[in-house]
Structure formats: structure tokens, C-alpha cells
Amino acid sequence: MSSAEWGALQQRIVACQRCPRLRTFCREVAQRRRRAYQDWNYWGRPVPNFGEPDAELLIVGLAPAAHGANRTGRMFTGDRSGDVLYRVLYETGFATQPSSVSREDGLRLRNAVITAVLHCAPPQNRPTREEIAACREFLEQTVQLLPRLQGVVALGAIAFAECVRLFRQRRWWTAPQTPKFAHGLLLHSPGAPFLLASYHPSQQNTFTGRLTPAMLRDVFARAASLLHQPLE
Asked: By the 8 A CB rule, do 56 and 85 touch?
């Protein structure tokens, strides 16, 4: 895999026009802007992957937030979800700093790539099945271009379902039954990357206590430990 192939994928993601509803919504949000961000030049387009393709861990979220990544142009950057996620990634060794506010803030990932089921912000954070299917190819191509991939962390039930679909497609998980999504659930077949599930660090989950920073930290600490164990 070459850096040119990774760059070409990133360009295809940003230029995608497959979902008119999502593209219209992203542009409208960028034009209206939130009062607190009136001075921002919103990204307003599909958000590319964040990280380098030599990483061993892939983190899969749901979609950019309307005033988060749709504003900043970087996954999980500029919103409450990112505040929680990047602090945990820093504490577990996957990020160089604990905060993420803009594409120019100097943050780098360590041995990780962040992507999402959708690369456009959906209205009310509710994508349609057709929109999820339209974006699925980008997740498949992302995985294909990660030659050192050893594990995936899926943030939320939708991301987990899409990752299970991908794992079955690549025959990384062939058991007839798939356990129901649960925080901390681990799927791991001998000789294949692992799949680790977590609640999504959404504002609703973190404000209600369904997901605490400690719970999320435990997931990524386990991922870090699994990465250092030889695949059977």
C-alpha cells in the first residue's frame, strides 16, 4: 500500500456526492453556523479519515457532528464527544495530546486511525439505511489500505453492526451467531484482527452516565493490551 493510494481514498471521500440529503444538510449547517462559531469557516463536506495507514488500530464512529467535524473537518474534533474520546486516547497512548479543537492544533494519532460509518453529518444524527449502505464502500477501502491492522474499536451499536458485516465479509468472524452489542464485547478469531465494542461517547451517553471516561478508558486500555499480544 502506498501513501498515494491512501491520499486518493481521502480525496474520494471528500468529493463524494452519493447522498444528496446529507450533502445539502452539511452545506446548510455550514452556511447558517452556530452563534458560538460565527467566525469559523465551516468544512461543510464529507470528513476524511484521520490518521496514517501504518496504524494497527482502527476506531469506527457513527458520523461527523453537525457543528463538530462538519465544522472543523477532522473526525471527532470540536465537540463534546471528541473531548471525551481524545482525552482517553491520550491517556491510553493513542494520541499525542488530550484535546482536539481544530485541524491545525498539532494533534497526531499514535498507531491508530479514526473513521466513521458515514463521512457526512446526518440530520438529528439519524442516517437512513440507504445512506449507511452508500458509505459502506469507504469503510471497506479503509480497512483494505491498513496492512498492519490488528484490531478495531466500534463506537456504538451501528458502528458495531457495520464492523461485524465487514468482519464476516473478510471471514474474520465466521461463527453462526453474533453476540448482541454490549459495551466491552470482544470478538476475536485466531489469526484475525479483533473487534471490540464500546458505547459511543455521545453527549447523551456521557451526560447520563451510561458511558463514563473510566469505562471508555478500559476499552482502549484493553485494545492497547491486545495489540501487544501476538495473534494466534
From this structure: no
CA distance 110 to 94: 5
Quick check: 208 and 229 in contact, CB under 8 A?
A: no
Q: Are 53 and 146 in contact (CB under 8 A)?
A: yes
> Do residues 115 and 55 touch, judged by C-beta distance below 8 A?
no
DSSP secondary structure of 200-219? ---HHHHHHTSS-HHHHHHH
Residues 6+ apart with CB under 8 A from 180: none
> Residue 95 — φ and ψ, nearest 5°?
-140, 155
Instruction: Check residue 232 and give its pLDDT.
Output: 44
Domains of the chain as residue ranges with CATH: 3-227 (3.40.470.10)
Q: What is the pLDDT of residues 159-173, one digit of tens each?
A: 999 999 999 999 999
The C-alpha atoms of residue 9 and residue 108 are separated, in whole angstroms, by 19
Residue at grid coordinates 459511543: 200
Query: What is the distance between the alpha carbons of residues 11 and 15, in angstroms, rounded to a whole number?
Result: 6
Full-model pTM:
0.96
